Amino acid sequence: MTQLPIKNRFHLPKGMIYLDGNSLGPLPIGVSDRVEEVVTDEWANHLIKGWNVDGWMAQPARIGNQIGRLIGATPGTVTIGDTLSVKVFQALSAALKMRPDRKVILSDSGNFPSDLYMAEGLIRQLDQGYELRVVAPEEVASAISDDVAVAMITQVDYRTGRMHDMGEITDAAHRAGAVMLWDLAHSAGAVQVDLAASGCEFAVGCTYKYLNGGPGAPAFIYIRPDLVSRVEPALSGWLGHDAPFAFEQSYRPAKDIERMRVGTPPVIQMAALEEAMKVWDDVDMSAVRAASVRLCDQFIAEVEARCPTLTLASPRDSRNRGSQVSFEFEQGYAVMQALIAHDVIGDFRAPDVMRFGFTPLYIDETDVTRAVEILGDVLDNRTWDCPEFHRKSRVT
Length: 396
Ligand SMILES: *Cc1c(COP(=O)(O)O)cnc(C)c1O
Prior knowledge:
Blueprint: E1 10-11, E2 17-18, E3 27-28, H1 31-46, H2 50-53, H3 59-71, E4 78-80, H4 84-97, E5 104-108, H5 113-126, E6 131-135, H6 140-143, E7 148-154, H7 166-175, E8 179-183, H8 195-198, E9 202-205, E10 220-223, H9 267-276, H10 285-306, E11 311-312, E12 324-328, H11 332-341, E13 344-345, E14 347-349, E15 353-357, H12 365-380, H13 387-390
Parallel strand pairs: 2-13, 5-6, 5-7, 7-8, 8-9
Antiparallel strand pairs: 1-3, 4-10, 9-10, 11-12, 12-15, 14-15
Helix pairs in contact: 1-9, 3-9, 4-5, 10-12
The structure holds pyridoxal-5'-phosphate.
């Protein structure tokens, strides 16, 4: 197994300390060449033949297995496509079909809004009296009552980094007879996940955060293998059909996880992701997790010593935290803009949360110390307090 960090596997702008891999991972070396090859050789020269000779049609299955290794999913149980919001919709609608006598979708207030929005849209579309019940993150396990059809929970809170206990919540869901759907957007490539051991029915996640697949990289979906042949796909597109090229008049789902595919895959974006996933070939997730905990603990200790006006918004105990650390500060937006101007890249989430993601693949102890020094200087000198850093951009 490779020693971390492996900075030479990434293109990182010189002098930049990138603490936002939880939002958009950096460019792995090799991806540019691979994308160029797909465009100038496979597409340009092979044209339609590429679907067969270049294996484009099997990309989602191959990438699904690459990702599966990182999240404890056995080969053939994960496929790739669309965006995470779409995968949430697919998993949620399939889960509701498995509990026709129940009407409650349970989630928590730390969930990412898009997951909640998709649930609301599905409920409106079904128009059968479904209810989205949103409780505080601490209350999820006890709130899974026997009217809950599906517990739809994001393991790591995008804002605070708070991490749910996957085993405990999955067991609580199953004791109550509910279906368990995990969103691993901030888990895959960040923390150790063992989907098979958890016994959950569904999982989804995205690939442009810790998996470095590039902006808009397609999402993944997992179904527990014993259930897949019974799952009813709401988005019954032709590439989820059992025999897409038989062009039958009526939909018949594929026998395996391929039924969660919808339409034509974005081949260029998929090729970027497949290449990006090679970074993980010799990387051990337990080593990534151990290093991530060390970096986050170091960051918390150094920020609290150097920047007493900031308030920790993440769990202090690393066992309850993903791979990011957040601090609250009233002027957090402006402080973050000043930090970015000094090449320390984190981000901001309303109303007052500054987020810092730690990815041991390319961040080390020296980077952490340097980032804290710059943060301390920005606060001491009130560098942030000028009009240009208060101006809000469209993406924060
Ligand atoms: C990042 C994220 C999303 C984003 O969904 P897209 O459809 O890929 O834009 C959704 N849900 C969670 C929990 C996320 O962290």
